[in-house]
Predict the structure.
Amino acid sequence: MVRTLWTAASGMTAQQTAVDTIANNLANVNTTGYKNETAEFKSLLYQTIQTRSTSKNGENKPIGAQVGLGVRNSSITSHFTQGTLKETGTNSDFAIDGKGFFAVKAEDGNTYYTRSGAFQFAIGTNGIVLATSEGYPVLDSTGNQITFPTTYNAANITVNSSGQLFYTNPNGTTTALNRTIGVYQFNNPSGLLKQSDSLYAVSAASGAAINEANNANITKSKVIQGYIEASNVQVADEMVNLIVAQRAYEMNSKAIQAADDMMQQANNLR
């Protein structure tokens, strides 16, 4: 019965993690570029009560008796399915249709990756800079900041589906700027380390970033100007998952209550 208490307690702890994950998904339902997460579980050690042996008559007993000792969280996996593209009409907003990520340079000097393309044209020391709302500069396909002369009108900067930048002059002619917004892919995007501000960091599990501009063996993503990628969280699915996790939590609590009742009856024996 003591084993029951600890096994059920591990189930309650695991289901609490599931509820925490679902709550985070629902909290980020309107976060640009957010990818929903699911909590995954695995069983703990098993205690062998009886090994595979033979009966007293010499008959084979191929199946032993093992009792599981509970469950624990094994991972919280992000699902990088495509989110809905929402038109904003702002020429500094970009959405990725495909598996790619934008690259930004954070204040700590490290490069991080994001699916959120809600950028801004900011005035920097070297001119107009394409940056995130936190001020992190967006990188091009060569790993450098994307800057423009201060004489440019940011409203006249356009980007094609390949991420190439163009500028429309006052006389109506369009000039290629010979710059391309950097788009990168990963062999295992679920292995990226989650940071704040919708940023991801490279890890050994994710593998190194693959520059789409330099690799012809991958399917290229499309960069769409004037759009942002909405969260891929499905509220109905999350509510169903929340109910399932809540019921599992209740069942584990009832197992603890049942074990407590059995221990009470055993203690009251005369």
